[in-house]
Amino acid sequence: MDPASKKEADRQKALAYAVDIAHPNLPVDIGYGAMTFLRNNNPNGISPTLHQDDDRGAWLRLAVTKDAYTKATDGDPDRCDRCELRDKKVPLGTPVWYSFEMRAERDFPMADARFICAQIKAPYYDSDGGSPLFALRIDRGRYVATVEHLYEETDVKFVNGSEVSTHVTPYQAPGPCAHGVRAFDHHVFGNSKSDYKELQVRALLATDGKKLPEHLENELLSCTDLVVVTQESPLPDDIHAWWRFTLRVAPTKVKDADGILELSAADPRTGEERLIARATGEFGHAGSADPETNTGPAPGDGLQYFKLGPYRDKLKIWGDGPAAIHVRNITRGYWQRGEELREQAASGKSAAPRQP
């Protein structure tokens, strides 16, 4: 093997990990090998606890509750509650897959509010990532998955002081979007020196077998064709049973190029996996070489990382009790097929996605 090939093989091998939840390091921050619970980044997060209730191995309880930890110095303590494990950042565009088993605790609260269980962070408007590239959520006791796409000034027209997007249009209920997928169009972030608004849209990747909860019907009021989503099967209906989720993602690597994402689910008892959905879009912001117009990190400086565990808005409707999920068998590896699919998309070729 030549030196360049060996270096690439070593890089791909180094991406792989299996999280050892049974043997944590116990300083202020709790390390589980490749992933860490940062105590001061997790306002109102209960420190993870180890449990075992069947013959399939140990699991971690990750929970948030009112006033559980009020001394957090980071993690937006005035705005949200967190109890997250996170891995180390890797260069934006790195093709990776993540697999983990998860269930919600039996008394998980029912609330018309977002609760993120797992997410991929990547730069949109800043180096910390803004909204998540991908998020697996629980809303009103049901699974929902979303992806985030960056669109830019070139995607809109300016008419009488309004931004009129050629790609994001109002959703006309009932029924599917005339073109594109359901989305939440949000212009809420600081942008470049010449334009305050960050143009970003959250697209619906997948739901369970029922219709959207009412509060999401009232939020996802747009359609976008900037994200292409193929939905193959619904998310699991039962949030209290163990499910193995596998997320495969090759995010945007260069400016204005699409990334690739797939989400699958399996019953851990049988191992039979089904593809939930796949999507393409500008997932993450690779940045512009012009610092006057750049709306994110400079080219080559963008980073991505994975977080597993509760993130929720600090709202009274959650009540005073805990909101907890259980997780186990957390692994990561290099997604070779994702790299191939992204290159084929960039060259205008097409190929049927397959499992790695």
Name of the CATH architecture: Sandwich
Helix content: under 10%
Helix and strand element order: HEEEEEEEEEEEEEEEEEEEHEEEEEEEH
CATH hierarchy class name? Mainly Beta
Q: Helical element count?
A: 3
Strand content: 35-45%
Derived structural class: mainly beta
| CATH topology (fold) name | Jelly Rolls
Tell me the span between the first and last alpha carbons: 23 Å
Rg on CA atoms, Å? 20 Å
Largest sheet composition? 13 strands, antiparallel
Q: What's the total number of strands?
A: 26
What's the domain count?
Answer: 1
Describe the structure.
By secondary structure, the protein is mainly beta. The protein has 3 helices and 26 strands. It has helices spanning 3-15, 214-217, 336-346, and strands spanning 17-18, 30-32, 35-37, 45-51, 59-64, 80-82, 85-87, 90-91, 96-104, 114-121, 134-139, 142-150, 156-159, 162-165, 168-170, 181-186, 190-192, 195-197, 200-207, 222-224, 228-231, 243-250, 259-266, 273-281, 303-313, 323-334. Strands 2, 3, 6, 7, 8, 10, 11, 12, 15, 16, 19, 20 and 25 form a 13-stranded antiparallel beta sheet that branches. Strand 11 and strand 12 (142-150) form a beta hairpin. The longest helix is centred in the first third of the chain and has 13 residues, at 3-15. Mean pLDDT is 89; it is low at 350-356.
